[in-house]
Amino acid sequence: MERGVHALDSEPAAEGTMEIDEPIERLETERDSFDRLLRPELAGAYRLAGYMLCDASAAEDAAQEAVLRAWRAYPRLRDHSQFGPWLQRIVANVCRDQRRRRRLVRFVPLDGAAEEPQPGDPFRTALDRVAIGRAIAQLSGEHREVVVLRYMLDLTNEDIGERLGIPVGTVKSRLHYAFTELRRGLDQDPEVAR
Amino acid sequence: MRSDMTGFDRDLEPGLERDLEAQLRLFFHQAARPAVPPALELATERLPDRLFRDRIGLPGSRLFVRPMKAALVALSVVLAVATTVGLLELRGGLQSAPAGHVTPTRILLDPVSRNPAIVAMGRFDSNTGWVEISALDADDTGHASSYLRWTEDGGKTWSEPRPVPLPLTDMGTGRVQFVDTRHGWTTTYGPQGSPTQRATLWRTSDGGLTWQTSTIPSDSVPSSGFFGDTVQFRDSLNGEAFEFRAAGSGSDAAAGATYSDWVCKQFSTSDGGVTWSAPKAIPCMSGVTFADNLLGYSYDSPGLYVTLDGGQTWTAGTLPAEAQGSKYQIPMLLERRSDGTLRAFVYWVKDDGTSVNAIVESRDAGQTWSVAGTPSADDTTTRDYGLPFGMPMAVRDEDHWLTAPIKQGNKPDPWFGTSDGGLTWTQVTYAGLTGDIKDFDFLSASDGWAATDTYDTVAALWATTDGGATWTRILSTP
Questions:
Q1: Of B9, B16, B33, which to mutate for an interface test with A (greatest number of A Cβ within 10 Å)?
Q2: Which ipTM score applies to this complex?
Q3: For the segment B306-347, what is each residue's pLDDT rounded down to a tens digit?
Q4: Closest Cα of chain A to B286: distance in Å?
C-alpha cells in the first residue's frame, strides 16, 4: 500500500515552477550529490549511447541530454544506490528519441553523398573492425539496444525490460530477431564469406 | 481465455546461439571502450551548475523569473497541481479500497505517455474482455506504467483505466493474466539486494481494482537468467510458477557459475497464490509458452516439451527424425485438435543453414512426433527475418490459422491463412487495419481481436467478425 502512496507523491511538477521556492542550500547539497553519483557513471552512459547509436557525435549529444534530464528528475530518485540503472534508463530513452528524430527529419546531402560517420569516430571504428561489429551496426535500433544492454552491460532480460520500459517477452522477442539479423549479417559479411 | 502473446515469447536456443553470444561478449568486453570526450566531461561538469541556476531562477538561466512573473508562475503551479490531481481522480487513480487490499495509485496520463503498447489481452465471451496497456511515463526516466481496461459490450465502451501495480523501484514482467473476470495475477521483482528482490506476486479478485501481494519462495530473482519464467494459473486457485535461470548470468551470478549452470524449479499453489509449495526440480526447458490455461509447450534441443494440465506435469517428446541433427528447432504454435492429437508448427534450421517449416503431430500426448507436412516458406515473408510466415500467429479454430508478419516500415506486407491446420497457406486480404500486429486473440473462427502499435506512438485494438477479412478499431491510445 505504501508503494502506491509513494508513487503518487512523486508525480512530476510542471517544469521549472515548483522549485522556485526551494532553499538554495538544499539544492546545493543536491547538486553535489548528483555530481558525485554522475562522475563514475558518465563514461558508461557515453559508451552505452555510442553503441546504441553507432555514432560518437550523437552519443555525446545523447549523454549530455540524458544528464540534463537526470538532473531535472533527480529529486524524484529516492534510492540513490539505483542511480546507475536509472541513468542507463534515461540514456536508452534519449537514444530512442534521437533515433525517432532521425527518422522524422532526414537530411539529404546536396551532393548526393551518403551519410557517413565522422572520420575517427571511435564507435564506428570499433564496429567496423570486426564482422560481429559490422553486424551489430546493421541491426535496427530497437534490436541493437537490447543486444547492447544484454552483452555490453550484462543485463538480464528483466533488467533490460526495466531499462527500456518494455515487457520481458518483448525483450526476448527482440533478442531473437536480433540474433537472426546478426546471423544474416555475418553470413553476408565479405570477410566471413572469404 | 488468456492471451498467448505467442509473438512475444520466443526464446533463443542455447546451443545454437552460444557461439554468437560468445562473439558478442568478446566484442563488448574486449573491444574498444572509447573514453569520454573532454567536451562532454566539461559540459556535464557545468551542466548541473547551469541547471542549478535554472532551478533557483538566477539571472542568466533559462527559467529566470522576475517578481511579477513569479506570481504568474506561482498561480500556474496551483493550476498545474490542481489539474494533475483532477486528472488522476478523473482517471480512477485515487480509489478507496477495502481494508487489506492495495489500490495502486500510480497511473499514466494518456496524452503524455510514450511508447504505448498492448502487452496482454483476454476474452471470456464475445462481449467481455480486457486489455493491458503499457507505456513509458512522461517524466523521461523510462519507467513504464501499465493499466487495465475492461469491456462488457464487445469493445463499444471501456472501463476507466485500472492501474497495474508496478512499483517505481521494482521491475515487472509487464503482463497480467486473468482466468475469469475477477481473478488475475502479475509479478514484480525488486532491485538486486533489496527486500523485494524475490518475486512478488500481485493478485486481484476484483478485475484489477485492488491487489494483494505474496512472495514466491524462490532462492533468487526468478527468471533472472537468459530464459524467461512464467506464472501460470489454470483456475482461480491452482497455479504453477517456473524459474529458469542461468546461475552464471546477470549481476546476481553465483560465484564461479557459468552459463551452462542452470537453476530450473517449479512451485505450486492451490490457494490462488497466497502460499506456494517448496520448489521441485524440473527439466531445464527454454521458457514456457501457454496456448490456454492448460496447454503449454517448451523446447530444449532436440525435444519438445508439452503440458496438458497447466504445467503440473510435462512430457518430453522427441521431434521427428527429419529434425534430428538440426542446429535448432523453434515451436511456433501448438494446438490440441478435437480428435485428441497435438499439432505444432515447428521451424528448424539445418547445419547447412537451410530452414524447414514443419507441421508435426503427436498421437500420444507429446511423446513422439511425426511430420504431417512441410509448408513452403514464402519469399516475401522470409525476406524479413528468415522466419516462415512471420509472426504472430493466431489459431482461429483447429483448422483455420492466421498470421501477419511484423512490419518493417509502412509497407503492406502480406498476411497468410490456412484452412487445413497449417499444411497449406495462401495469402489473405484484409481491410481496415493499420499498424504493426503484435498479437491476435480469437474466440472462434470469425470473432477475433488484434493488438497493434504504430511506430511506438499509438497502440490500438481491432475487432473482426469475419475471420480477419475486415477490421474495426475498438480502442486506441492515446
A1: B33
A2: 0.79
A3: 999 988 999 988 888 888 766 556 677 889 999 999 998 887
A4: 11
